[in-house]
Amino acid sequence: MTRIAIIDDDPNVLSAVRRCLRRSGYESSTHDNPRHALRSFSTTWPDLVLLDVSMPMMSGHEVLRRLRRLESKRRRCGTINSALPTPVIFLTGLAATHQVVAGLDAGVSDYVTKPFDDDELRARIRHQLRLARNTEERIAAAESTGSSAIHDIASAIQSCDGPLLELDFNLTLANVVRRDSLQKQILGRAHANVAEIINRLSHANRNLGDVR
């Protein structure tokens, strides 16, 4: 069963999200203290994390940084098999454009604002879990061929998923913002996304030449 960890200092939010997830059959754990949540991950690692940003004990950005460090450590020890980062969705009342952009720049997988719609939240969770599952399957298929070059190609292509999502988000934001300075800033990020995608696909293309 898919395990989802919910970290939020508001007990009402924890209850509401847990009810929402229960309808989809997810196994969830709730944490009103981010430090306790991170400690609990040492025994049971979640498949996805829903994370508040503004918490008095520790900000969501700091929780994300510590989560990634812990994840990297566990991967080196062999207690996490997946080579992909665990999906993390910010679930927060900070809805301003620059706050959303800051969250995505910090490496969060997605961003949902409060008050949230149950159907939207479940859809975003399904999308992130499906994206992770499909990527794992592509890597496994490449590894089964026994060719390191093909594995590198699959890895390079799947690594474009994140920049493509960010590019789509940045272009959407650029279409709705009204301030020229902010629009230029967002388009600059979109340009960086395109450059990153081109670079990664070029890497895949070079590896493809090795197996022709």
Specify the CATH architecture of the largest domain.
Answer: 3-Layer(aba) Sandwich
Which word captures the global form? globular
Total strands: 5
Order of SSEs: EHEHEHEHEHHHH
Counting DSSP H or I runs of 4 or more residues, the number of helices is 8
Main-sheet strand order equals 2-1-3-4-5
Radius of gyration: 18 Å
CATH superfamily of the largest domain: Response regulator
Helical content class: 55-70%
Number of domains: 2
Q: How much is the average pLDDT? A: 84
Question: Strand count, sense and closure of the main sheet?
Answer: 5 strands, parallel
Text of the CATH class of the largest domain = Alpha Beta
| Separation, N- and C-terminal Cα atoms | 41 Å
Structural category is alpha/beta
Low-pLDDT runs: none
| Fraction of residues in β-strands | 5-15%
CATH topology of the largest domain: Rossmann fold
Produce the secondary structure layout.
Blueprint: E1 3-7, H1 11-22, E2 27-31, H2 34-40, E3 48-51, H3 60-77, E4 88-92, H4 97-105, E5 110-113, H5 118-144, H6 148-158, H7 161-176, H8 180-211
Parallel strand pairs: 1-2, 1-3, 3-4, 4-5
Helix pairs in contact: 5-6, 6-8, 7-8
Please describe the structure with a list of short key phrases separated by commas or semicolons.
Rossmann fold, alpha/beta, 2 domains, 5 strands, 62% helix, 212 residues, globular
